[in-house]
Amino acid sequence: MAEIKIACWNVNGIRSIVKKGFYDWLTREKPDILCLQETKVSPEDIPAELVSPDGYHTYWNAPQKKGYAGVAVWSREKPVEILKGFGKPEFDVEGRVLIYKHSAFTIFNIYFPNGKASPERLKFKMDFYDAFLEYVELLRKKGQKLIICGDVNTAHNEIDIARPKENSKSSGFLPTERAWMDKFISRGYVDSFRYFHKDSVEYSYWDIKTNARARNVGWRIDYFFVTENLINRAAKSVILSDVTGSDHCPIELVINIP
Asked: Which among 24, 32, 151, 242 is annotated as catalytic?
């Protein structure tokens, strides 16, 4: 049995976080696969030390808009295949999806949209959610083993947010967003953190402007979801809330494979 450690982190700018202890954390944690969101770089702007970090192969998906969104996967082992996006141009132009195919499972590394800016962006977010679910359902129904990770930009239940009442009308905790999370999980995607920690009050995001991290007024919006046919292989799912450098902290999943 082989143990694979997968880390996931919205870094809020890869060039910024490398100045804030990112490499020290990477050396300490040694993930086999690292999924990054909100990298905010284009391929032509990626420094050499990020393109070829020691011990990792790197794969990037950047949006058309400079300095915005973007995802990356760093892996010690070369994937079977890497795919960018869902094949829907209206979503794929924002560089939010990398699909990493391992021999034992497929990882979806996704930076889901934020719906706070306007009603139009909320609609875009919900449309993105639906397009994503349609895509993964085709694979799940074929029996594929899937891991979905990233910044989902929605806290699922009241336990996942420090101030549920105050945020009940804010995107990220709206009834319609939470209902979509219910629907998603009901299809057979397991929230791995809750699988191991049913009653733990832990967060993965804190607003910088209000100094929320110092007061632990946070949101749990970063997730590892695992299909039911793979969850019995999960050994651990944790939130690394002591790791700083971004307004999000990393999360980790350990999977055992034959």
From this structure: 151
